[in-house]
């Protein structure tokens, strides 16, 4: 039981770091590409999450 909780915590931390890193990468590309591509990527991420 304890081991399962530990692995779950590690996995959730990994997921949070992935999301943070992905958001940072998106912000960097937004500066380069502009707002038009930003709107497209936000639509795609919305489809993925649902």
UniProtKB/TrEMBL annotation:
Domain of life: Bacteria
Protein name: Uncharacterized protein
